[in-house]
Structures are given as structure tokens and as C-alpha cells.
From TrEMBL:
Lineage per the UniProt record: Eukaryota, Fungi, Dikarya, Basidiomycota, Agaricomycotina
UniProt keyword Oxidoreductase present: yes
Protein's name in the database: NADH:flavin oxidoreductase/NADH oxidase N-terminal domain-containing protein
Transmembrane segments: none
Family according to the record: Belongs to the NADH:flavin oxidoreductase/NADH oxidase family.
The species this protein was found in: Suillus subaureus
Length: 439
């Protein structure tokens, strides 16, 4: 009998680590904000808690091929948001190895691969959290609404070396804790994507200028992790923007070139996303179409067959498809906007992506992938929010906390719950909203 989700059930083997994910689903990174936090004592920050373990135990039951954690900060004073970020900083008095081992055990308990996402926010951090951010150059992030940003101090070469060491240290801790790999967050306007974009990288040394120079730090981190971990089966992945959607921002042509460098560097999979806090974006379609017709025809393979538009789902799927045609080994994960099993299966069967990344649908329904694979669900749960992406992000963050606390998950497909949530948020806004923006 024809099984519409058969393509999603196929295992996928990564080219460099040789590891196999049991199916074509990836739980995309979502900042959990469930670590310990102390306002005045940074040494009491960032430790995984029982809530975090419960959250990953829950997702583990969902039959997801690959589980990526929310972004883990590599420097305790450079947090992505206020509050309860996870942190692995070699300067903290304890590395929390036991706690991370518990998280790995929970996430892997039903056969998923578990990957820890590592991040440094660079300049993209509210002035209330870090008034003295560090970044490739002193290009300040424009203020957005109520959120102001400090003028960043350009990193010295020693500062860059220190950042490389810190990413490497955090990866080694996760490796010792039993994680199957790491993902470097080089998307959404954070430090590594600030290095990649001309707009934010004005350096004239070997970390700025040409695209290869702008990718230098990322490539150094990958090489350093390989040297430190000494385990070829440890997965290294990168989350990369298809484009920043800002003038002088990282663009599609550059993204393809960087992805090729990452393939040479032995990156098992590249997760494709887009946009930054400065400018969110939800589609690569127009830009890829533009490339196709006018832009850089040399980037378009002669047998390029655009992904069938009528069955399109997913914000960056056109870019993912184009990227796939430029890579020989690394796998491509398309994340963002997938909501139906048909749309997900089409993206895989039509060759637009190797793997489907899901974030918000898995906070409303942590077992959604299992139910899709069993043929019991065809569509992710909807919601009754007015057209406001930010509210949806905050709502997902609230659902994450509920799962971590063992509470019932609020059903936002219920208009009453939505109204109550919005009323609550209006009291807590702008703090909640601005915090939620730092993704
Ligand atoms: C609450 C929340 C937290 C997020 N935190 C992160 C993060 O830590 N790292 C990251 O790369 N993306 C983060 N994202 C973005 C998601 O990984 C994903 O790219 C985005 O939500 C689009 O996928 P979706 O349409 O399936 O939700 C976050 C999203 C949400 C809703």
C-alpha cells in the first residue's frame, strides 16, 4: 500500500562521522531558558536542571531522528538573553559534566542522535544584558523597538583565539557528556554570522575582507574541535543563513560558497535558515527565483528544476534545494515553516532537502513526529494567534517551560487560551517579547 510518509521514514547516514539518523526529522534548536540563574553571581548560571532533563526525555519519546538542543552559550558574560540560558564556560567553577550527561542520556534514550548547539551572541545582545558586547568590528546593531544595543568592541586576534578555544572547550565537554555532536550557530545574526557578513565585518586582517577570510573563524573552530575531540564519529554541523535579507548582509551566493567550504571542512550537515534580529525573513523563494533568472546564472546547475511551487512548504526550501545541488557529501536540513506531513514528504522526495527541521510544532506537540510516522497525524496543530510571529515565538517558549515543568501544554488552537495568553503577555511586555526576539 502507498505510504505518503515513506520518504520521511528513511534513515540517513552522515558522510564524515558515519553516524545514521533513524529518520528524516530534526528537532531544531530552541533556547529553553531552563538552566540555573543567579543575577549577581555568574558562577551560579547556566547549569542544566531537572526541568531541562524532563524536556529532553519528552522529546526523546517523539521518535525524532536528530535532536538539537537550544543554543548553549560559550561565555558566561555574553548571553543571548536574560535569564536562564545554558552555559558551558571554562571559567565557571564547575563544568556541570554530570548534568550534561543527564541531558544527553534523556535525549538519546529512544535512539535519537543528540547534538548541542553552541553560540556566542556577539553584538546582538540587549544593552541591559551586556552593555559592552564584542564583535568582529565596532558596527552597532540598530535599535529595534525598545531594545537598545551597545557599541561593540572589535575582537583582537587574541580575543578571536579565545573564542575559538571556548567553542572547542564546550564541544569537548558535550563530547565527554555523551552528545553525538555539536552544531555551531552561524545564523540569525549572532557572532559567527556577524563574521560572515560584510556589513558587520570591517576587519582588514585575515578574519575579514574576502569571504574565505570572513569564514576563517568558523573553519578554525571546526578544525580545533576535530583536534580536541579526536573522535571521527563526533558530528559537526552548522546552522547557516541562506541570506540575512539586509543590504550588504550575507547573501545567497555567499551562503553557497561558505557551505562548500564547510563541506571541505567535514561538516556532516548544514541546517538552512535565514534572517537576523535586525531583519527577520521567512522565504528564500523570491531571491532564488531572482538568481535563477537574472542574478548569478553560473550558480544554477544546468539541470536545475525548481522545486514544485504548488506543493511548496517551508520558508527556505528553494534555497535548500539549490544548495543541495552544490554539495556532494554534506546533508542539507531545511528548517522553518513546515506544517504538513505532505509538505515535508514532498521536500524530501523531490530532493529539496535531506532532512526536515521542526521547531515550534514540537513545542505544541512534542510527539508530532512519531504520530506523523505512524500515519496518525497529517498536520501540525494550528494556533489562533493574530498574525504576529513574535507572539508565536513567545508562546512556544511558554510551552517549552510547561513541558519542562511537567505541566499540561497550553493549546493555542483554542481562542480562549490565546486571549488569556495575550493578556498575560501585555502585562509582561516588553520584557517577554524583547527577550523572545533573541533567538
Ligand atoms: C522559542 C524558540 C527559541 C529558539 N531558539 C533558537 C536557538 O537557540 N537557536 C537557533 O538556531 N534557532 C532558534 N530558534 C529558531 C528555530 O530553530 C527555527 O529556526 C524557527 O523557529 C523556524 O522553524 P519553525 O517554523 O519550525 O518553528 C528558536 C525558535 C523558537 C520558537
Amino acid at each position: 500500500m502507498f505510504d505518503p510518509v515513506e520518504p520521511l521514514k528513511q534513515p540517513v547516514t552522515f558522510p564524515f562521522s558515519g553516524r545514521t539518523a533513524k529518520n528524516r526529522f530534526l528537532k531544531s534548536a530552541m533556547s529553553e531558558r531552563l538552566a540555573t540563574f543567579s543575577t549577581f553571581d555568574p558562577s551560579g548560571r547556566g547549569q542544566p536542571t531537572e526541568e531541562l532533563v524532563r524536556l529532553y526525555e519528552t522529546w526523546a519519546k517523539g521518535d525524532i531522528g536528530i535532536i538539537v538542543t537550544g543554543n548553549i552559550q560559550i561565555k558566561k558574560d555574553h548571553l543571548e538573553a536574560t535569564g536562564r540560558n545554558t552555559i558551558i564556560d571554562r571559567d565557571l567553577p564547575s563544568v556541570y559534566l554530570q548534568e550534561w550527561t543527564e541531558v544527553a542520556r534523556a535525549a538519546k534514550s529512544q535512539g535519537s542522535l543528540v547534538i548541542g548547539q553552541l553560540n556566542h551572541p556577539g553584538r546582538q545582545v540587549s544593552i541591559n544584558i551586556q552593555p559592552y558586547p564584542e564583535a568582529p568590528s565596532d558596527v552597532e546593531q540598530p535599535s529595534t523597538g525598545d531594545v537598545l544595543f551597545g557599541r561593540p568592541t572589535p575582537l583582537t586576534k587574541d580575543g578571536i583565539k579565545d573564542i575559538v578555544d571556548r567553542f572547542t572547550y564546550a564541544a569537548s565537554v558535550l563530547h565527554r557528556a555523551g552528545f553525538d555532536g555539536v552544531q555551531l550557530h552561524a545564523a540569525h545574526g549572532y557572532l559567527l554570522s556577524q563574521f560572515l557578513a560584510k556589513r558587520t565585518n570591517m576587519r582588514t586582517d585575515e578574519y575579514g575582507g574576502s569571504l574565505v577570510n570572513r569564514a576563517h573563524i568558523l573553519l578554525e573552530i571546526i578544525a580545533a574541535i576535530r583536534r580536541a575531540v579526536q573522535n571521527p564519529s563526533f558530528i559537526i554541523s552548522v546552522k547557516l543563513n541562506s541570506q540575512d535579507s539586509i543590504p550588504e548582509g550575507f547573501c545567497i551566493e555567499e551562503s553557497i560558497m561558505v557551505a562548500k567550504l564547510l563541506e571541505i571542512a567535514g561538516v556532516d550537515f548544514i541546517e538552512v535558515s535565514g534572517g537576523a534580529y535586525e531583519q527577520t525573513t521567512r522565504s528564500s523563494r523570491d531571491k532564488v527565483t531572482l538568481l535563477y533568472f537574472t542574478g548569478s546564472p553560473e550558480l544554477i546547475p544546468s539541470d536545475y528544476k525548481p522545486y514544485t511551487v504548488e506543493t511548496r512548504e517551508g520558508y527556505f526550501v528553494e534555497y535548500a534545494e539549490l544548495l543541495r545541488s552544490h554539495l556532494n557529501l554534506s546533508k542539507v536540513v531545511a528548517t522553518g515553516g513546515f506544517r504538513t506531513s505532505q509538505g515535508m514528504a514532498n521536500a524530501v522526495s523531490q530532493g529539496a532537502a535531506d532532512i526536515i527541521g521542526l521547531a515550534r510544532p514540537l513545542t505544541a506537540e512534542p510527539l508530532l513526529v512519531r504520530d506523523i510516522l505512524r500515519g496518525e497525524k497529517k498536520t501540525a496543530k494550528g494556533d489562533r494567534f493574530p498574525e504576529s510571529p513574535m507572539l508565536r515565538f513567545v508562546a512556544s517558549a511558554a510551552q517549552i517551560a510547561e513541558i519542562g515543568n511537567g505541566q499540561d501544554i497550553t493549546d493555542f488552537d483554542n481562542a480562549f487560551h490565546v486571549a488569556r495568553f495575550i493578556a498575560k503577555m501585555q502585562k509582561e511586555i516588553p520584557a517577554a517579547i524583547s527577550e523572545a526576539l533573541f533567538l
